[in-house]
Amino acid sequence: MALFDMPLPELRAYRPQIDEPDDFDAFWAKTLAETRAHDPAVSFEPVETGLTGLRTWDVTFAGFGGHPIKGWFSAPADAEGPLPLVVQFHGYNGGRSLPHCWGMWPLAGFAHFIMDVRGQGSGGNVGDTPDPVGSGPSHAGFMTRGIADPESYYYRRVYADAVRAVEAARSHPLADPARTVALGGSQGGGITLAVGALVPDLAAIAADVPFLCHFGRAVTLTDSNPYAEIARYLKMHRGKEETVLRTLSYFDGVSFAARGSAPALFSVALMDQVCPPSTVFAAHNAYPGEKEIEVYPFNGHEGGAMFQEAAQLRWVPKALNRAV
């Protein structure tokens, strides 16, 4: 593996023109209004994990279309609340996994919620949430499901679910809505950028090697999945480029980043061929709020891994202290 994108000084200055649709904000206002029209009921069922240092609840809430979405809510065992809240989104084709996998933030004194991304959870971590919505012809994976129209595109449902996940997690009595942080890596980082724009009162966000950014460059720069799913779809569906790029323009993390306002911590790996560094810097550089970025020069998509987690554990409390 070697450096394949722009040199770091050029990346720090990279501000591409994103082909954003005129009705971007109206599209998302309509999507969230439709989603919130369904019963917002949330259930929290206590579960036994064998971990004496935390308590965990099996969560079900209504996402896009009123569809049931799963998650785990955890908090320190002896906490009385209200606690600062971390809402986390996992990587591509992962799932909410098992509750003992998410102990870091409760051990740091936070309430924590991990959302199960619908239809995923068969690679890396197991998931429990189906996606009941069908789609037209697509390439294997999730990137091209419903890609012929923004209304039917897979990530419309996922981003709407993620907004509802924040609302659901905030409804727990141990959570402090005013001290809510959204974070995630890869796909979770891209979802975090969307949530940062669509939930304007977050206290902070942290997007680690974010996916779903600068689609127009990503699909022509890397042969790695998941972006390569889109290229392979277009290889077969000749002449559909304009339609596909129009759909993706409603879901680009750069456009969401440009609407962010909470303090933000990004990370990027300069040898990352899954989420090329120029796509990450495009989002970071578009972000108008207070921001920092951790750069890992000799890493691929693993990015900073445990080092980035340590950076988040240092950065998040400081961001929350400034927010109150």
Automatic annotation (TrEMBL):
GO biological process, one term: polysaccharide metabolic process
UniProt-annotated binding residues for substrate: Y92
Cross-referenced SUPFAM superfamilies: alpha/beta-Hydrolases
Organism of provenance: Streptomyces atratus
InterPro entries: AB_hydrolase_fold, AXE1_dom, CE7
Domain of life: Bacteria
Descriptive protein name: Cephalosporin-C deacetylase
MF annotations from Gene Ontology: carboxylic ester hydrolase activity
One Pfam family here: AXE1
Acetyl xylan esterase domain: residues covered: 1-316
Positions of the catalytic residues: S186 (nucleophile), D272 (charge relay system), H301 (charge relay system)
